[in-house]
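Structural prep section.
Before we set up the soaks we want a predicted structure of the protein with beta-D-glucopyranose in place, mainly to decide which crystallisation condition to try first. Input record follows.
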Amino acid sequence: METIAKLISDMTLEEKAALCTGAGPWVTTAVERLGIPRMVLTDGPHGVRRTEDLDVIAAKSKPATCFPTASCLSASWDIDLIHEVAEALAEECIALGVDVILGPSNNMKRTPLCGRNFEYFSEDPYLSGELASAYIQGVQGKGVGTSLKHYAVNNQEFQRFSIDAELGERAFHEIYLAAFETAVKRAKPWTVMCAYNKINGEYCSENYDLLRNILKKDWGFEGLVVSDWGAVHDRVAGLKAGLDLEMPGPKARRVQAVIDAVNTGDLDEAVLDEAVRRILEIVFKAQKTPKEATDFDKTAHHAVARKAAAEGMVLLKNEGVLPLKNPASVAVIGRSAKHPHYQGGGSSHINPTQVDSPYEELQKLAPATQFSYAEGYGEGLEHNLDLVSEAVAKAQTAEVALIFVALPSIIESEGYDRNALELTEQQINLIKSVSAVQAKTIVILNNGSSVTMTDWLDGVAGVLESWMMGQAGGGAIADILFGKVNPSGKLAETFPEALQDTPAFINYPGENGKVSYGEGLFIGYRYYDAKNVAVQFPFGFGLSYTQFAYSNLKLASKTLKDTDGLELSVDISNTGKVAGKEIVQLYIHDKVSKLVRPYKELKGFAKVSLNPGESKTVHFKLDFRSFAFYHPSHKRWVTEDGEFDLLIGASASDIRLQDTLTLESTLELPSLLNKESTLKEWLEDPKGKVVFDPIFKQMTESFTSSMGVSEEDSADIGMDMMGFLMDLPLMSLLDFQDATLPEAPETIVQGLLAKVQALA
Ligand code: BGC
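Run finished without errors. Recording the tokens verbatim:
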């Protein structure tokens, strides 16, 4: 650290300003005179996109393993697996000369229309935070840096460079920041990438509260903040707000603006020095892992990609047709059987080392089965009845029909959103026509985010969601269809019945440059729970070829303080005939709360592997944050006394066991009473009650008599007088009696508030 301080003192103002903006699309500025090397940062997240030519932003990239995208990885709910994928990514970074991989992407899936959902983990901040942490730890454990992105509230592609996300403090902290908070505090990413958009009127790249207060001060982030590529508007304002590194470069005018700002005194040089220190610390940290232009183990990584794909695929429907049992003939229908849609469009696009087609992998796995093929649909949106007829003919004569359906590849991409959730008309027509003649029709979906299925789901016997499953996904599909792998993925995002059922439907995509997050905390299953809206497949849902029984929920204690922590356990048994893995979910339900809370919130999960007849005990730990919510008036996470249900589920809609505990909050929070507080609020506030209770009766009586209505008479004016009074501010109650009071109402209320303060 002493050397970094020395380096900074040796650097000229020009060198320091230059260091804070990239020297090219993918590299930071080197200062050869002082032995400061450049650092290479490239995409990410599910593969290494190292362009052949580092001077060109969208040049062809070197071959690298394309792992499944985040929506598939997240559906594995498997921390160890994500760690393993991340380690492989780091090895490829080292071999390809990359210091920092630009991932993981950790934004919430607010609407299924977001074009980039394939790159994001979940609609739930707890799950996303855990998975992002595993990714970061896996990569960084090998000495390669990560960039946790896109910080924050970047939940749509529509107008992503400028849209102003308007949201309340609770949704901000509990939903949109929480996954970043977990990852920053636990996994300590080397870099955090700030998003393009604005939050409540301020660009993320100039947002002092977001970057300095929350990220650096409250969460203790020690790495560097890098802009998303092109997210900077005012470089000096960015530096002041805590944006250390601007990418991409070069941008001579921006560098000059920083120099001028220091020279005119507009920018304190100490602010620039702090950014320089943070950048240098990461640049030299990266140096500790030499990047060799060697080969990585392509075969081994392909195998990891295959395993990861299989773990993330979700069996959504199975009416006794899967796994396939040596069928004599199978009709393989659908273009994506031969041209799998294994990744999405945009900056995450990987040049794969190889791609396995499901069609070939099926043939390899079942050499005795006769496979036929029909294309079924073209790459675009065109209608072609001939393709449907050909598919129907093949399906009719086979024992089983497998329909591989991928959304046209341009539909799911960075840069723009989807405009519908349905498959294409041609694909819907294809599925309906084939399933009408073939009872054993199984649909294999190939997409990055949810699709709706009401048009065709009832007619088919099976559905496998295989996501954008990466370059080795073809083999993983074959493994699952033939039972070589028992499917164990579960949805990390709800599949709705219709677009209009989704939480952000009325507010998305916004207008006039702004999008209102009107649904607040209620995204994903939190919304469907609250509104009692039926969904196609709930959050946390996924089938297996075996069954699991849940029993013996044990809480270490049923009364606890919020600081105590709680250990609990549940027994899971495989009651079926084949080995399998179950994803057990723990939700909490706060029974009574002063502020609104979602009915259920995920607070724990575990993936457990069981042989037939085997049982295992799964352990969970809860802590302060498991029970807390963010209180906008206290500006902190708080707990309250009261009862919580602990819900153990196989999905958000399939709660198998539950128990109740009583929590005692240890927080000594300042009273929130103020001159607008109602009688009810005075009585509910512990200190307010002490002060107000003794005068409550007298005050309300004198109010009712001054109004000329006794409490008993209140029915005469068609109301419950006490109900009316309880919601009246104390100040207003006194105001009605002003003429009879010895002092002004304001003075009386101020006096009572002072007494409350004195009790503290
Ligand atoms: C994307 C980032 C990406 C960067 C560099 C941006 O447009 O939003 O996710 O890392 O480009 O390619």
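Observations: DSSP finds 22 helices and 27 strands in the chain.
Flagged for discussion at group meeting.
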